[in-house]
């Protein structure tokens, strides 16, 4: 988590942004770095689309800041999915109490799967099915 501290939930960060917007005039004003960092934390958990919509922020701006915050591996993974190829290095996967898998298609559809206490999960198969659905 970045310097945003415990404000990484969508509702909490949304409230902080609303207070800032009321106090500083909203549109056209530069959002402080601390609030951007909190928004990036939310995007890591909720996804860029959901975070941008819920926080009433620019999707493109949030995506740029997420990438600049050191999420190059996530950006590379999304590029690989867009190209139709998904590579997963199982050497870096860790078993965790909770894992979230988010997939985004070219047509804007999203899939979010939350896994709890799972020993293994075939992410590549899920991605193939999701990306090849009849749309």
Low-confidence stretches: 1-7
Average pLDDT taken over every residue: 75
Element string (H = helix, E = strand): HHHHHEEH
Helix content: 40-55%
Number of E-state strands: 2
**Derived structural class:** mainly alpha
Large-scale geometry: elongated
Q: Kindly report how far apart the N and C termini lie.
A: 36 Å
Q: For the largest beta sheet, what order do the strands appear in spatially?
A: 1-2
Radius of gyration: 16 Å
**How would you sum up the major sheet?**
2 strands, antiparallel
What is the total domain count?
2
How much strand content do the residues show?
5-15%
Number of helices: 6
Indicate the topology.
Layout: H1 10-24, H2 33-46, H3 48-55, H4 59-68, H5 72-82, E1 98-104, E2 110-116, H6 123-131
Antiparallel strand pairs: 1-2
Helix pairs in contact: 1-2, 2-3, 2-4, 3-4
């Amino acid at each position: 988590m970045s310097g945003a501290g415990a404000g990484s939930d969508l509702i909490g960060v949304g409230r902080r942004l609303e207070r800032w917007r009321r106090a500083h005039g909203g549109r056209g004003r530069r959002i402080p770095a601390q609030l951007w960092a909190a928004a990036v934390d939310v995007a890591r958990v909720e996804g860029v689309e959901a975070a941008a919509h819920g926080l009433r922020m620019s999707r493109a701006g949030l995506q740029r800041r997420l990438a600049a915050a050191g999420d190059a591996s996530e950006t590379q993974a999304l590029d690989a999915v867009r190209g139709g190829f998904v590579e997963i290095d199982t050497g870096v996967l860790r078993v965790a109490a909770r894992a979230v898998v988010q997939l985004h298609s070219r047509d804007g559809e999203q899939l979010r799967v939350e896994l709890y206490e799972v020993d293994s999960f075939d992410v590549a198969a899920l991605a193939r099915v999701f990306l090849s659905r009849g749309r």
